[in-house]
Amino acid sequence: MKAAWYEKQGPARDVLIVGEMEDVQPAAGEVRIRIAASGVNPGDVKKREDAFGIGMQYARVIPHSDGAGTVDASGEGVSRTWLGRRVWCYGAQSYRPFGTAAEFTCVPVEQIAPLPDQVSFEQGACLGIPGITAHRAVHVAGSVEGRTVLVQGAAGAVGACAVQLAHQAGARVIGTCRSEADKEIARRAGADVVFLAGEGLIEEIRQAAPGGVNHVVEVAFAANIKNDMQVLAQGGSIAAYATNAPAPEIPFWQLCFINAGIFFIGSDDVPAQAKMEAVRAINQAMETGWQGFEIADRFPLTEISKAHEAVEHPTKSGRVVVTI
Q1: Lowest mean pLDDT among 57-61, 147-151, 181-185, 305-309
Q2: What share of the chain is helix, strand, coil (3-state, %, to 5)?
Q3: Which contiguous run of DSSP H or E holds residue 299?
Q4: What CATH class is the domain 130-268?
Q5: pLDDT for residue 203
Q6: Secondary structure class of 183 (helix, strand, coil)
Q7: In the chain, where does DSSP find H-type helix?
Q8: Which of 5, 137, 293, 321 could serve as 217's disulfide partner, Cβ 3.0–4.6 Å?
Q9: Alpha carbon distance 87, 110 (integer Å)
Q10: To which H or E segment does residue 195 belong?
Q11: CATH class held by domain 2-126+293-323
């Protein structure tokens, strides 16, 4: 099969190789997917460049955890009813060496979901990590029905998905973003109100939620924790899935006095039951009309280095997809 891989970490153009390797075969409990599109997440790029400082976990890595395609083989114990079905998958390269940047990938059957007929493979390739992260970030503190949820970075991949899933769950959603164009993305995802980040933001949120925000989905924990604290309702909560600085200062006493809860979300280790709930909610959103993600760039597998560079240095909003 044709695949892209790296055997050492570093800059994309220095370490990514595209070539032929032996076809992968599904083990017991797995399916093999003929990949049509492979989603590139920031985490895929960070693993390749060793941004987390954990080194190479495997001698050879085919990158990317998310993808979409058609099931063409199944291992022992897997129902043959999956054969020929359009699916999206997640976690292909989570604690595993071979992801979706290849003609074929094998994943446990629990890590696939039917791709609704009206949803393209490119959209399906974008759903995994952002969708599971967003769903967990929205629901980790409990039901949001009838509550006010603030989504910081509401035009990003996780942010827009969080807006949609919170809206779907019956929350009133306030979004923040950085530009007028991004405001439209957040509105299309289901935000009731959208504000631009910057001076006056706290007062705008307070006016929109005079009783305080019940829950915050946070993309830049270090930068925003003090602002989040100022708009949280008593007993409110924050779910952070990313930070702009690795060792943020926390206003402990102010958070203590409002009995705030803080949750940290890592998509690879979300509990299995929560992942299944996320998959159901994501598919329901797509089936009931959510248009999904903006696709900023598409690259063929032979140009995977350019795809990684587009994620590292984005020039426009939206997801980056590698087509196989």
Answers
A1: 181-185
A2: 35, 25, 40
A3: strand 295-300
A4: alpha beta
A5: 97
A6: helix
A7: 12-15, 42-49, 121-124, 128-139, 157-168, 180-189, 201-208, 221-231, 252-257, 272-287, 304-312
A8: 137
A9: 12
A10: strand 193-196
A11: alpha beta
- Domain assignments of the chain as residue spans, ordered by start: 2-126+293-323, 130-268
CB 140 within 8 A of CB 239: yes
Whole-number pLDDT of residue 209: 98
Rg (CA), the chain: 20
pLDDT of residue 23: 96
For the segment 109-126, what is each residue's pLDDT rounded down to a tens digit?
999 999 999 999 999 999
SS3 state of residue 147: coil
**Type of residue at 52:** F
Q: What is the pLDDT of residue 52?
A: 86
- Compute the distance between CA of residue 236 and CA of residue 171 in angstroms, rounded to an integer: 14
Q: What are phi and psi of 204, to 5 degrees?
A: -65, -40
What is the Cα–Cα distance from 211 to 204, expressed in whole angstroms?
13
Q: In terms of Cα–Cα distance, which of 134, 39, 164 is closest to 89?
A: 39
Q: Do domains 2-126+293-323 and 130-268 have the same CATH topology?
A: yes
Calculate the alpha carbon distances from 301 to 24, 42, 181 in Å: 17, 17, 30
pLDDT band for 99, please (50, 70, 90 cuts): very high
Separation between Cα atoms, residue 149 and residue 139, nearest integer Å: 10
Q: Which two tokens stand for residue 88?
A: 């999206």
pLDDT at residue 168, rounded to an integer: 97
Q: CA 129, 132, 138, 143: dihedral to nearest 10 degrees?
A: 180
Between CA 230 and CA 224 the distance in angstroms is 10
For 123-145, the pLDDT digits (tens) are 999 999 999 999 999 999 999 99
The answer, yes or no, to whether residue 59 has pLDDT greater than 90, is yes
Q: How many angstroms separate the CA atoms of 103 and 73, rounded?
A: 13
Strands 104-108 and 86-89, by their bridges, are: unpaired
Q: What is the pLDDT of residues 231-264, one digit of tens each?
A: 999 999 999 999 999 899 999 999 999 999 999 9
